[in-house]
Inverse folding.
């Protein structure tokens, strides 16, 4: 009776407007009640999963029959169904994967050779299902090298996301319509800079939040540069 009713598409803006840390979100999330209202009558009500992170920790919020459920997120990635606890458990099936050259553990009686680089990743799923993309994103993120500069870190982030990007034509959802990665984005929480790129424009764009007056009720928007950008070298 004392809960705040909000729609699924209002959850993230509401959390950002109310709390300043993941710890505060975890403390207050059970005060919310999600109501079944679509963002648009033309769109179905989707079973959403939310990743909330700050500089210290990362959590996942899911809406289940019993209410809102919170999980700590040790891998720092998230995809859609199935539920997050099963996604984490499924990683056990890939514990033998490695970023190094594997040793022959098949049998001492057979002389087997690592004839190619990257064979430690044999078995890493390559399909476009959300479960497989979760495994691939987690493996890529957790084995990627940390960069020492801001530009290097941003570049590395988009390379990590690139491992699970979907291209037009590979995942048909209805007759002649395909699911694909419309945009990718990240945020530098130390400097308040938001980076993004779109499907048609792979150039990384940035928005510095410190250049705007944020204590306002007015919506701030920017023109979307969707056309491909090329740097002419001659």
């Amino acid at each position: 009776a004392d809960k705040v009713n909000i729609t699924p598409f209002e959850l993230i803006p509401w959390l950002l407007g109310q709390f300043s840390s993941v710890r505060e979100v975890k403390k207050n999330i059970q005060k919310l009640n999600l109501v079944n209202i679509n963002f648009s009558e033309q769109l179905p009500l989707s079973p959403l999963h939310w990743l909330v992170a700050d500089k210290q920790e990362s959590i996942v919020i899911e809406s289940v029959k019993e209410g809102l459920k919170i999980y700590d997120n040790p891998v720092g990635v998230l995809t859609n169904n199935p539920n997050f606890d099963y996604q984490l458990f499924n990683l056990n099936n890939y514990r033998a994967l490695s970023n190094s050259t594997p040793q022959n553990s098949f049998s001492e009686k057979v002389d087997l050779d690592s004839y190619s680089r990257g064979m430690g990743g044999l078995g890493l799923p390559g399909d476009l299902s959300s479960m497989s993309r979760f495994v691939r994103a987690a493996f890529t993120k957790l084995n990627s090298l940390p960069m020492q500069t801001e530009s290097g870190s941003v570049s590395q982030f988009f390379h990590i996301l690139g491992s699970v990007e979907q291209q037009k034509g590979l995942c048909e959802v209805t007759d002649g319509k395909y699911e694909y990665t419309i945009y990718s984005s990240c945020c530098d929480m130390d400097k308040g800079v938001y980076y993004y790129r779109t499907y048609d424009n792979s150039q990384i764009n940035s928005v510095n939040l410190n250049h705007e007056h944020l204590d306002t009720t007015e919506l701030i928007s920017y023109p979307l540069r969707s056309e491909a950008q090329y740097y002419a070298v001659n």
In short: The longest helix spans residues 130-143. The chain has a mean pLDDT of 92. Helices lie at 11-18, 22-28, 84-90, 130-143, 150-162.
